[in-house]
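Example record

Each entry pairs one chain with its bound ligand, nicotinamide-adenine-dinucleotide.
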Amino acid sequence: MPETLRVGIAGAGFAARFHWKGYRKVYGVPLQVVGVTSKTAASREAFGREFGCRAFASFEELCEQSDVVDICAPGFLHERLAVAALERGKHVIIEKPFTGYYGPDGAKEEAFCGNTFPKEVMLREALASCHRMLEAARKSGKRLGYAENWVYAPAIQKEREILEKTGGQILWLMGDESHSGSHSPYYGIWRFSGGGAIVGKGCHPLTAALYLKRAERPSANGQPIRPATVSARTHEITRLPAFRDAGCLRTNYEDIEDYGQMHVTFTDGTVADIFATELVLGGVHNWLEVFANNHRTRCNLNPINAVETYNPREELFRDIYVTEKIGTKQGWSQPAPDEDWQHGYPQEFQDFAESFYQDREPQASGELARDTVAVLYSAYLSAERHGAEVAVPLSADGVN
Ligand SMILES: NC(=O)c1ccc[n+]([C@@H]2O[C@H](COP(=O)([O-])OP(=O)(O)OC[C@H]3O[C@@H](n4cnc5c(N)ncnc54)[C@H](O)[C@@H]3O)[C@@H](O)[C@H]2O)c1
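Structure tokens for the complex follow.
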């Protein structure tokens, strides 16, 4: 292992910024962010200037100077960039969604419509993509970190501790990630994002649920508890002819759902209900409730009520950050004292840095990411069948 872990970031947008901030807080592992690359010279140079790191003109140059490549680019690029970095012998961190289905190779852009495209093909191809990424990691002997911050959120980690120390069994989980609409111009177009609310938001509480069920005492056969089936519905509420646009929600989605719900059963027969929407005002709405045989825990990621404040005039709070996607700062609000911390970002980069340095699996591993993708795309298949139950493919090659 090199003396200093050199990290290169692919992408210079929203995620790249909070990743950079997360790396600054890593302790006990010598780590340096060497630089960034992105699609346009303007965006990477602006990022380099703001954060004092190098702007690399190409992904290859970034790889050359890095021990870890952190992929903060849109989902349709994740597999390509991850495999390229692994083949160059680099550890890889991948933002959510781990991977997915982004349309047939070579299809004309306008010819692919994600919401009507056959979901059986999508599921098969998304799992094949996971398989190629996990295989590339195995062959290279390098680590894959899945940047699912919910795994590292203090509220979820507290529940993991409760589960482990009390030997509890989770019977039912219910969770949600929702807000008023994603900011990224890539989001809303399936060929860039790999899906809508289910993939873009549902992935978060879903992975946390899968993680907690894995953290439970293994089943009688010693195997971790994994997802078994899913029944799902998706809707496109802001594109309904009857939708009345009051100007409060993002509405310009091309071919994705803005509402999704998944009912997941696990291999031990217990269940989870996960919601994900672009329809919620009042800031991000991120929570997971755990109903166990010996306790009940409400994991609030955002908002939390560590601070409650009343602001009589909007302009008074002009320079004060309240919470993600809050909309208005007037009236009562619950400003986040440290939103990155409550979302688990610094903890995530700490775990990745240690796992690469100590050569161990990160808590948010490629295997967990693969199960997440398997549930998400099985959910789309179920939704295509109007909610019929679909078996989640569990084996490495996608065949049960
Ligand atoms: N975990 C979270 O809470 C969270 C939050 C937001 C986004 N994300 C994920 O992060 C990823 C990026 O999303 P974002 O919101 O930062 O999007 P964004 O649109 O803000 O930024 C995307 C960046 O990728 C760059 N890019 C495009 N093509 C590239 C290429 N070929 N090589 C290198 N860079 C390229 C763009 O130039 C841009 O800088 C997505 O996978 C998204 O789902 C995760």
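Residues 10-16, 37-40, 43, 59, 72-75, 77, 95-96, 149, 184, 186 surround nicotinamide-adenine-dinucleotide (CB under 6 Å).
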